[in-house]
Amino acid sequence: MSLPGVFLFSHYVESFWSTPPPLVDWSGVPTLVLVLVAVVMAATALLARSPDTKRPTRLPGPPALPLLGTRWLFWSRYKMNKLHEAYEDMFRRYGPVFAETMPGGATVVSIAERAALEAVLRTPARRPYRPPTEIVQVYRRSRPDRYASTGLVNEQGEKWFHLRRHLTSELTSPHTMQGFLPELNSICDDFLNLLQSCRRPDGTVYGFEQLTNRMGLESVCGLMLGTRLGFLERWMSGRVAALASAVKAHFRAQRDSYYGAPIWKFAPTSLYKTFVRSEETIHTIISELMDEAMSRTAGAAQDDGMREIFLNILANPELDMRDKKAAVIDFITAGIETLANSLVFLLYLLSGRPDWQQKIRSELPSCGELRVEELAAASSIRAATNEAFRLLPTAPFLARLLEAPMTIAGHRLPTGTFVLAHTGAACRREENFWRAHEYLPERWTHVREPHAAALVAPFGRGRRMCPGKRFVELELHLILAKIMRQWRVEFDGELDIQFDFLLSPKSPVSLRLVEW
Ligand code: HEM
């Protein structure tokens, strides 16, 4: 209650009991006054409340059921592995800004409108709050023997800032990437050899996505652990296969824990057990790989560009050993599928543009190691990858909690509102891009309006942006260049895409690599 409210109320009560009985019957008046005072007090209290606690003004959105909120939609009308289509449908039904209700009653606001997205993503937060994945948080907090925190991806505030500062500076530095380029060239060559050995006589490669996954594993582990691990050898070891399938299960369990019934929060359901198994498999295998990498590093020269990141993380006295291990795990799990899916999407989209493939080839030297300057000079490569990220990003939306109240599309959203910024959906809207649904790399070399380039955010925005961006761009450009020098890519029909917490190609994917 506000101070004037308390004062008024106590003054009234005191005078009511101390005054003698009136000559006239005023008996109805005290009640009336009491009601009026109560109204004034309630209004004063409401106005005095901090704006942070106000709920968003009523936004359009699907109808919410008691206890279940709007989650029932994902168990009836929509399929969980087609969530991207579910959101497209909801944007059609409710417009570019709508609200869902979580089972606990909290509101999640989805945005695909340009001005609103730009406002949310431009906010210059020092410690941006990205809602953590609860199942990871719950599990890691239950294992203090293994985890000192919930890790860089899920941590918040000062703890996140500390991890980010000590874990990512090497990864984001152009110098580190320059040093890693010779090794990356050799990893890409091994990937091409693997593709060659898996090609049928007509050029078809079955299960292409599994090979890109192995490429993701080899390059991200190489980058993080500073050593080659043999994921690109023709016959994959059991350990490699186990790690790859644990990473897939890990993402799927996160998706199901978020969009499915939240029973795992109250009992160890099979979903929770699957998640724990995948986390433990990943932890065990990566711990072994780290130990092997450490013993190899101990006997080797220390000036190799490839070992820089790993050694610096290991040597950092500011970090708990458990955080170092969790960081390597998080980097590897965050990097493998994202990279592999992006490569499949890129080649699939390019298969519809043989002319652009020819253009890429014409901009490259015909043989030899590729240097950064040669890649930078091939503008068609950058255009092809930018356009693939615009049309088919593996991370189609970004999650944030608003750090200040914001008015979006005429609706006031209070601090703390959970927002899903659907950059992927916004990039496919005609008001934001010319012929928005088509794969047109030329839009990046000769701009045609509308062209809302700022909406293309495959690696996120602001201080929580993906620290792997520089590495991924270098790697995708390099692989694409090497593939285009050797083959043209063909694909029959349409790629089936599903939502595994990331957009992923439905396996198995077959495409043809045909000699020029
Ligand atoms: C095509 C590949 C990749 C894509 C599309 C991608 C995309 C993303 C996105 C969208 C985010 C969230 C950013 C935000 O909230 O603003 C993110 C975060 C992150 N990514 Fe990536 N990523 C990729 C590869 C990688 C690689 C290779 C690594 C590690 C070597 C990595 C490590 C991380 C980490 C640690 C975070 C959490 C950062 C933080 O919260 O501070 N990612 N990534």
From TrEMBL:
For this chain, one GO molecular function annotation is: iron ion binding
Q: Which PANTHER family match?
A: CYTOCHROME P450 (PTHR24279:SF120)
Which annotated residues bind heme? C466
Q: Which domain of life is it from?
A: Eukaryota
List required co-factors.
heme
Q: Does the keyword Metal-binding apply?
A: yes
Q: Which one Pfam family would you cite for this protein?
A: p450
Which species does the entry assign this protein to? Parnassius mnemosyne
PROSITE patterns in the record, alphabetically? CYTOCHROME_P450
Membrane-spanning segments: 31-48, 327-350
Q: Which CDD domains match?
A: CYP24A1-like
What keywords would UniProt list here?
A: Heme, Iron, Membrane, Metal-binding, Monooxygenase, Oxidoreductase, Transmembrane, Transmembrane helix
The name of this protein is Ecdysone 20-monooxygenase
UniProt lists the family membership as follows: Belongs to the cytochrome P450 family.
